[in-house]
Amino acid sequence: MKSPINWSQFTEIIHSSSRVLLTAHQRPDGDCLGSELAMRLILLALGKEVQIVNPHPTPPNLNFLDQTNFIKPLERLTQEDKIWINHADLVIVLDTSSWAQLGKMAPVFKVLQARKLVLDHHAKGDDIGAERFIDPEAEATGILVVQAADALNVPLNQEIAEAVFVAISTDTGWFRFSSVNAQTYRTAARLIDTGVVPATFYRKLYEQESLGRIRLIGQTLAQIEPHFNGKLMLVRIMLNDFDKAGALSSDSEDIINMALQVKDSQMAVLISELKDGSFKISFRSRCTIDCSSIAAQFGGGGHKKAAGASSNLPYEKIKQSVLQIIENALNHLELS
Question: Could you tell me the pTM of the whole model?
């Protein structure tokens, strides 16, 4: 299938730049970080100067990706870093085109005079004043980074391939989500051909859990609320749940997918309290209900099968609103 991305235009922009700033969404995940690190290596191979600055620090469970600390959190920038950023001639935003998802990077991004582009696989976003290179059918932004390397004639070496493999494998749930297709496996095979060892990365990603995360998983799953005859699994995590388990906020990653494992469930929602008192709302679906449309009603976005949003409303108000919207969606599904 022909890509909706104009790779000729993309390569023209890259070749015309010399100093490139990479950034991505807050609360970075494997796709975001893997894509950034792989893109950095691709740009370095082309002789570019590159910096990566994110709105949030890398979560501890993904620190293995960046042992040399190429990724800098915005809050830890030096004066020298700030001067470098202000003189960048290109900014690439990876894995989002949403002002809300840029978090504390948003005001920085707005004032930069550099040319700006987005490389992303999320269908919905904002006009952030950047040239858009978006393919909503791509399984992960990491897939687009591979296509970018091909368009730029940069060979995939093992270091690039390992970063991309983490990006793709995490955003496809270790290749189990419905977004996976034959081309996904062909791309994975290319990465493995460079020397990537999947078993090694599975251990790093999924078999290095802290005791706090295991306790958080147990506490959270014990509190699952089934709704609408078991079609919806609602999960919540409050700040005191993290404290009780001795867990970090990043330890909630993927718990929502565990909730969707309940037999006959069609959707799962996780409402998680953040340190500032707001809530992160995550949606998952294995039916035809579009999660991104539901998330959009809370100012968020994402994909048909997985999306997210945030809210400053109290938990009970968020819960009741979520239940009403999903009940309407399920009723419409049954009538159609």
Answer: 0.82
